[in-house]
Amino acid sequence: MNICIFPGTFNPIHNAHLKMAEFALKHYGFDKIIFIPAFIPPHKEISSNLAKHRYRMVELATSKNSKFEVSDIEYKSDSPSYSLITVQKIREKYNIQEKLNFIIGTDAFINLNSWYKINDLKKLVHFIVFPRKGETPDYSEFKAEGFDFEVAPMECIDISSTEIREQKEEGETTKAVEDYIKEYGLYIN
């Protein structure tokens, strides 16, 4: 099975996340995209009270596409959600011998050198980098350091989870997620 993982905080998941995953399915011919909401993101401060809500919102947002799956693999551990450990578990679960495809945004990709045991992780994954509008990073450093990656040839979509949380944008996520946010009073300052 040709799978791709899409780890993230998804705080909350939005339409750009879904469009990236749909693009990856079509462009790269994946059989499945596995969304992996981080339980305890090591690089971001997020209330642990939001963990179950973020997971549920990913379930709601992805429910209409049979090729999308949501994994609770990071919720089964009380430790921070390190990508290396997650990738090792996914490779074992699906008996993957080759590199695992890994969707990542440019904002996270350019900070990879701060990730837990990155030299071990980069041996196990092929990163598919999705840039944001206005981002034009220099990828030459990553090539020189042996990262296996490609930049997705998708037109940039400018949606921000931060703006959704700050209620500056509406209609940037699915109706089910918007309703969920309202029902539980999430992201109200």
3D architecture notes:
The chain has one domain (3-184): Rossmann fold (3-Layer(aba) Sandwich). It is an alpha/beta fold. The model has no long low-confidence stretch (mean pLDDT 89). The protein is built from eight helices and six strands, in the order βαβαβαβααβαβαα. Strands 3-2-1-4-5-6 form a six-stranded parallel beta sheet, sandwiched between helices. Strand 2 (32-37), helix 2 and strand 3 (68-70) form a beta-alpha-beta unit. The protein has helices at 15-28, 51-62, 83-93, 106-109, 118-121, 140-144, 161-165, 175-184; strands at 3-8, 32-37, 68-70, 100-105, 125-130, 149-151. The N and C termini lie far apart (44 Å).
Task: Give a quick rundown of the structure.
Helices cover 34% and strands 16% of the residues.
